[in-house]
Amino acid sequence: MTTIYGCSDKISPYFESNTYINENSSVINDSLKFSHKSYGDVTFIKTKSTLKNHLKTNKVPFDNVLLYGKTYIDPIYEYYILTDSKKAFKYKNHFQKDTLIGNHTFTFIGIPLDKSNPSVDFKVLSSNLVLGDNYAKKLPSIYDIIESNKSSHQFLKGLTEFNNFPSYTNQEKWNKLQMQLTYASFLGQNNIYEELIQRWSPNKTNDTIISVIKQKGTNGLENVKREILEKAKNEKLVMFNENHFYPNHRILLTKLLPELKKSGFRYFALETLDEKKDSILNKGGKLDMETGFYTREQYFAELIRTAQSLGFQFVAYENQDKCKDREMGQADNLYNNTFAIDNNAKVIVLAGISHITEQPDANGKKWMAQIFKEKYRIDPLTFSQTHLNSYRKVTESVALLKNGFLDRKYESTDYNIINNLNFKDEKGTFSYKNSEHKNIQLTLYYESEFKKPNDYPKKVPFRCFLLEKNDTFSITLPDEKIRMILFDEEGKVLENKTIN
Fold it and tell me: What is the CB-side half-sphere exposure of residue 169 using CA atoms within 13 A?
């Protein structure tokens, strides 16, 4: 080996502009207008201090290191990508390739760490370098990130990947924000979630509407519950909606379920349930990561577990017929799985934002509730938790406003619920402080739902929170065995143990 030493820096000045996306299988650098596609089993060093320590400890002679990665599955190897290196290298057993792109020279150095010959990998990796105006075009899309995380309970990992995902157009930024909010909401009431919610819904309010809510509305959780239950008890069909980013919308319904069951409601129809998952739940099957997309969120899971314990019959009614209008399909499925088979059915529905509106929108579109009402002659009692969502700070807990006091655009349902319920557990008997120097995901599972000790990837946690450095989580644990698993931002398990 011959090495000509210069005085250039060990780490490229562009290193800290690297962004790692899609489970770290791709790297993008906006400052350099550079991208690199790697393999899923490559782990990259991402912080300057860690890379500096690695280079020093291993006496690495390279300069201007832009990227360092190492595999954790056979074949085992490591590789470096250098930018505009001022040194000359010639290694007998290493793979080396210099590529001139624009004004920059990239040096790829691949080093085998076992007896295998990863030359094919090195040839592919050294060719997966893009620089210039098209550097972001061959990267995974945000839908690839969604797909890779759709069956995972490692929500912090998913959130981190969405945070890191580059977005350039307004549509890309909008799609990214929605997924950031979704995964942040899966992690309880946390600072990142609150910041994202402010970006999504900045609480623009109207003084007249505030005055109407205060003067004409019913305020306070117990008062609102009492009025909803009184109005609902003689109805055949009651519909609630939710914004999928607001777990407290599910919490209110969880609090209403026991009394609704006493009033004779038997069927619980959930838009988010995947096809045929209702029958699994109705046969006593446990909630898992395949039950539905939003059912993995802890308070949606609590809603389902509560309904299951009360003996509700679940109904999956989402339209699966691609040749059919979605709203019509939902209405037909809802009827065919309830009233068509049970004349005495009393049904509760939880749907996404607009599906329970009983009037056409500004474009003349009819939604599921209106179609159901007109086609099957059953008038649902509808409660919207979304139309006045920007006024949630008007109440300390919950307010209820009957229609008739506001403009038509706010009154496409019978009632508006203004929901500001807290979704952070009160301080309890179990506490945990994050002593790591990074964000972690604290996840608690009912061990009774495990068939095997390592069954947790398939199970939905009953509590899940993002803890920043020095944050403390506290809760009163249920009287059964609970397993606590801690994950870092890359999905690695930091701790796995039974805590009671």
Answer: 7
**Strand 398-402 with 381-384, pairing:** unpaired
Instruction: Give the pairing of strands 381-384 and 267-270.
Output: unpaired
Distance CA 306, CA 5 (A): 68
Cα separation, 18 vs 132, in Å, equals 15
Question: For the whole model, what pTM was predicted?
Answer: 0.84
Strands (E), 32-71: 34-37, 42-44, 65-71
CA–CA distances in Å: residue 386 to residues 106, 312, 391, 392: 52, 25, 10, 10
C-beta separation of 394 from 363 below 8 A: no
The secondary structure element, H or E, covering residue 79 is strand 77-83
Label residue 117 by pLDDT band (50, 70, 90): confident
Residue 120 half-sphere exposure toward CB, CA atoms < 13 A: 2
With tokens 């890779």, the residue in question is: 148
The candidate with the shortest Cα–Cα distance to 121, out of 27, 41, 61, 54, is: 41
Q: For the chain, how many residues are written? A: 500
Q: Reduced to 3 states, what is the DSSP secondary structure of residue 193?
A: helix
Kindly report, residue by residue over 201-253, the tens digit of the pLDDT: 877 889 999 999 999 999 999 999 999 999 999 999 999 999 999 999 999 99
Strand partners, 269: 315, 349
Instruction: List the beta bridge partners of residue 107.
Output: 82, 98
| Gap between the Cα atoms of 232 and 229, Å rounded | 5
Q: Give the helix, strand, coil percentages of the chain, each rounded to 5.
A: 35, 25, 40
Q: Work out the pLDDT band at 412, boundaries 50, 70, 90.
A: very high
